[in-house]
Amino acid sequence: MINSPADSYGWCQSLSKRTAGNFYYAFLTLPSEKFRDMCVLYAFMRVSDDLGDDDEVSIDGRRQRLSEWRESLERALAEKQFDHPVFPALAEMVQRYRIPHDYLYAVLDGIESDLESNGFETFDDLNAYCYRVAGVVGLCCLH
Prior knowledge:
The chain is an all-alpha fold. About 75% of the residues lie in helices and about 0% in strands.
């Protein structure tokens, strides 16, 4: 298991290069530290989203995986206990930039809401969804 931030940053960069498409090349235009950190943020979002999108797993199974992922995130941020390669770098980056933890949990809320999405009854419902799946990503980047 990867427990050092240096190895974690490398893992995140490798995942980003493999899966981020044009985002990865856009990240390359950033100063090296920002490039590295955007790869970490992307990797966390990618792994999280993949947990919710895995069609080979039942909806209940995905819900359970997301619940376990949320618990892993809590341990990583609060206790510096890492059970996934993304977490050492994520915990360090979140602390360095003072990214509110609520932003990361909101992303998970958005992914979970996709598991039962039946549309939106009001503009406020749509607005809350957009905040969770896109707005907080932008807020993380601003930090």
